[in-house]
Amino acid sequence: MFPPNHVIGLKSAGGAEVLIHIGIDTVRTKGEGFTSKVAVNEKVKKGQAIIEFDLEGLKRKGYDLTTAILLTSGEAKKLALDTVRQGEPLFEARMEDAERGMR
Minimal CA–CA distance to 53: which of 67, 71, 39? Predict the structure, then answer.
């Protein structure tokens, strides 16, 4: 979790790394509207909430909530099309030397 809670870094047991950046210019919120649900270096499980944010409040303030999800290490197999539904995998990431991947 990076202040002001609009950027999240995840690392799988196999070493694949993902960066999630919620919104454009949301750094200007100084964290208002974002609530971290995990601590730094906490292990998380599939389906566990990691962040909550006030979607409607941020939209009313004019923020574009386009969210970038970037694989920063490892290789990915694209699974999703342009629109992703809650609970559906976006991509599958694997490290060459990893025993198991991140999904």
Answer: 67
Which of 22, 28, 101 minimizes the C-alpha distance to 67?
A: 22
The whole-model pTM stands at: 0.75
The region, left, alpha or beta by phi > 0 then psi within -120 to 50, assigned to residue 29 is: alpha
- Which one of 21, 69, 92, 98 is the catalytic residue? 21
Contact 95, 101 (CB under 8 A): yes
Per residue in 40-82, pLDDT (tens digit) is 889 998 888 999 999 999 999 999 998 888 888 867 666 666 6
What's the CA gap between 50 and 19, in Å, rounded? Answer: 13
Residue in this structure with the two tokens 């409040």, named with its chain if needed: 57
Catalytic residue list contains 21: yes
